[in-house]
Structure formats: C-alpha cells, structure tokens
Amino acid sequence: MRNRRLDEARRPLAAPHPRMTITDITAHWQLPDSGHFARASHNRYAAGPPPTTPRPPAEQRTS
Fold first, then answer.
1. Tens digit of each residue's pLDDT (9 = 90 or more) over 10-29
2. What does the H/E/C string look like for the chain?
3. Residue 56 included in any domain
4. Which of 17, 10, 6 is nearest to 54 (CA)?
5. Average pLDDT over residues 34-56
6. Does residue 17 fall inside a structural domain?
7. Is residue 11 assigned to a domain?
8. How many alpha carbons fall within 13 Å on the CB side of residue 18?
9. Are 23 and 34 in contact (CB under 8 A)?
10. Domain tally for the chain?
11. How confident is the model at residue 48 (pLDDT cuts 50, 70, 90)?
12. Full-prediction pTM beyond 0.85?
C-alpha cells in the first residue's frame, strides 16, 4: 500500500507543468509531511521526488 501511494504521489510531479505542490500532494495522499515523502521516495527510487517548477503567482493561475 505504501509503495502504491508513493507511486501515485510522484505521478503529478512528473507532469510537464505540475499543478500541485509537494505539500498539496503529501496532504492528498495522507503522507506525514514533505520530508517524509522525500525520504521515502529516495529509499524506493534511489532519488527524491522529481524537481518541480515554481508556481506562478495566484493572480496568473488559470484555475
């Protein structure tokens, strides 16, 4: 179950333009915190979560 949650949590971050932050994703998948997600990802995939691009300011977001 834990591995499935990690797999699903990483999926949105691999998108070309992630719409969720790591904090959003850890909350959605009920992971304890972003540090836990990073450590668990490193242990499972030998790498941390995929890097994300900065989110545009709220006034520039389309949704």
1. 888 777 776 788 888 888 88
2. CHHHHHHHHHHHHCCCCCCCCHHHHHHHCCCCCHHHHHHHHHHHHCCCCCCCCCCCCHHHCCC
3. no
4. 17
5. 72
6. yes
7. yes
8. 19
9. yes
10. 1
11. low
12. no
